[in-house]
Design a protein that fits this description.
- The structure holds two protein chains of two kinds.
- By secondary structure, chain A is an alpha/beta fold.
- Chain A contains five helices and six strands.
- Chain A has a single domain, classed as Response regulator (Rossmann fold), CATH 3.40.50.
- Chain A is globular, with a radius of gyration of 13 Å.
- Chain A starts with a strand and ends with a helix.
- In chain B, the strands form three sheets. In chain B, strands 6-2-1-7-8-10-9 form a seven-stranded mixed beta sheet. In chain B, strands 3-5-4 form a three-stranded antiparallel beta sheet. In chain B, strands 11-12 form a two-stranded antiparallel sheet.
- By secondary structure, chain B is α/β, with parallel strands linked by helices.
- In chain B, strand 9 and strand 10 form a beta hairpin.
- Classes of the chains: A alpha/beta, B alpha/beta.
- Chains A and B meet through helix 1, helix 4, strand 5, strand 6 and helix 5 of A and helix 10, helix 11 and strand 11 of B.
């Protein structure tokens, strides 16, 4: 069973995303900011990270840059999931190593489509 | 709506578009046609039926037919057909006599709001090293003028650009326009849209190398399917390809096409498939005879089948959309329509 780490400072989003991902047969865990996510990745590298951009302590882009420098940090597929819905942010995310990008609001179809796109399902 | 009114609408739709509605699709008539009735200041489908029966109701009849055949579509839908396009169809075209004329004509028979033809156009752009100097024409047809207008504008919502379109291609080929995303003019200019009822004579469209007709046949009765495929076979070059939806088949409907091995939904003409030929994955054989020299933009001519009223939907089928989740996690309506 593949493992997806859901990183978002909104508990509602974390709950909804986990629900969708578990329906898609993923094992899930969560973190509410980039720093907590990084610590969790150092303990157990997930197969995928569903990542918000704007979060306290450490934001999504800084998390991604730090993750890609970790040993095995290239492994997880990182899918941004954010309200930053402009081309500039998207390009910045791709350059930093994001594999896909979801613009909020999202639904199950979009999550499925994006996870399929990066070969996770 | 009384049973007689339902029967009237069902018969009218069958006659005008080929669409076959079973009794279980009564809900669909109601959900699709009540908005039309309200737009016409009517309070019920019974009133709508009365109006449709009047002699001067042609515009209303068109409106009703189009309302029943509009369906959602999305980029790279089902993926496999686009992988087959890139890995099987295009290599076969490059290995064929078309390499001399460097021309290719593709027909998307159910273009809907344009996602399928634009996905093909993007694929072609991405294959610039092989196809950059080819003259490629993509014709997108649909029964609904409304969806064609949207297709021509090339403007898509955030939801639409996220359904199937890889993010790298989205940033490469789309520009943000307010809350919408517009496909690049270089892609838009590759597709020509035409209002067309699949019940009409296909001769006017010319001859094609590839026909995409996905998720259309499922809405027709067997005789109409047979007729449509027979007429498409006459518009397809002998070494051309037909692409059907994953849930569709030619088996028992047409003996003019043969499934391409290990390529779901992809069909070659029997005559070409039986012959020996190019080492193209999935094909296993080269076209039996040299393809008619491709002439760009042609509408060539061959004798047109004379089958009477055959088919005509013209829109990609839909699948149920899940409720959307806003940034606050609140369920939202997607507004996606469905027909199945």
């Amino acid at each position: 069973m593949k493992h997806c780490l859901v990183v978002d400072d909104s508990s509602v989003i974390r709950k909804v995303a986990r629900c969708i991902l578990e329906d898609m047969s993923f094992r899930t865990s969560e973190a509410e900011n980039g720093q907590e996510a990084l610590t969790k990745c150092q303990t157990e590298m997930p197969d995928a990270v569903l990542l918000d951009w704007n979060m306290p302590v450490m934001d999504g882009i800084d998390f991604l840059l730090a993750l890609r420098k970790e040993s095995n940090g290239e492994t997880p597929k990182v899918i941004f999931c954010t309200t930053e819905n402009d081309a500039e942010h998207i390009t910045r995310a791709i350059t930093a190593g994001a594999n896909e990008y979801i613009m909020k609001p999202f639904d199950k179809d979009i999550i499925e489509a994006k996870f399929q796109e990066v070969g996770l399902i | 709506m009384t049973p007689a009114e339902f029967d009237y609408l069902r018969d009218m739709l069958k006659q005008r578009s080929g669409l076959v509605l079973g009794d279980e699709k009564r809900y669909l008539l109601e959900s699709r046609l009540m908005p039309v009735a309200r737009e016409e200041s009517m309070e019920s489908l019974s009133e709508l039926v009365v109006a449709l029966k009047k002699a001067d109701s042609e515009d209303l009849r068109n409106k009703v037919t189009q309302a029943m055949t509009i369906n959602e579509s999305f980029f790279y839908r089902d993926k496999t057909p686009f992988e087959n396009f890139k890995n099987i169809m295009i290599p076969a075209m490059l290995a064929s006599p078309r390499a001399a004329s460097r021309t290719l004509r593709i027909w998307c028979a159910a273009a809907s709001t344009g996602q399928e033809p634009y996905s093909l156009a993007i694929e072609i752009k991405e294959m610039a090293p092989q196809l950059g100097n080819w003259n490629i024409e993509i014709i997108g047809t649909d029964l609904s003028e409304e969806v064609l207008e949207k297709a021509k504008a090339g403007l898509f919502s955030q939801f639409e650009v996220q359904r199937g379109l890889p993010i790298q291609l989205m940033v490469k080929y789309f520009q943000q326009t307010g809350s919408l995303w517009q496909i690049d003019s270089s892609i838009r200019s590759m597709v020509t849209y035409k209002h067309f009822n699949l019940l009409e004579d296909y001769t006017q469209l010319g001859t094609f190398d590839i026909i995409f007709c996905r998720n259309v046949l499922i809405y027709f009765d067997p005789p109409t399917k047979t007729d449509m495929l027979a007429r498409m076979a006459k518009r397809l070059r002998p070494d051309g390809f037909l692409v059907l939806g994953a849930a569709e088949t030619v088996i028992g409907i047409s003996d003019e096409f043969k499934p391409v091995t290990d390529a779901r939904g992809l069909y070659a003409m029997q005559v070409a498939a039986a012959a020996s030929a190019p080492a193209v994955p999935g094909l296993g054989s080269t076209p039996a005879k040299p393809a008619t020299p491709a002439v760009p933009g042609i509408g060539a001519s061959a004798a047109q089948p004379t089958t009477p009223a055959a088919s005509g939907l013209g829109t990609a089928a839909a699948k149920p959309a899940s409720p959307a989740v806003s940034s606050l996690g609140t369920p939202m309506a997607t507004g996606a329509s469905k027909l199945a």
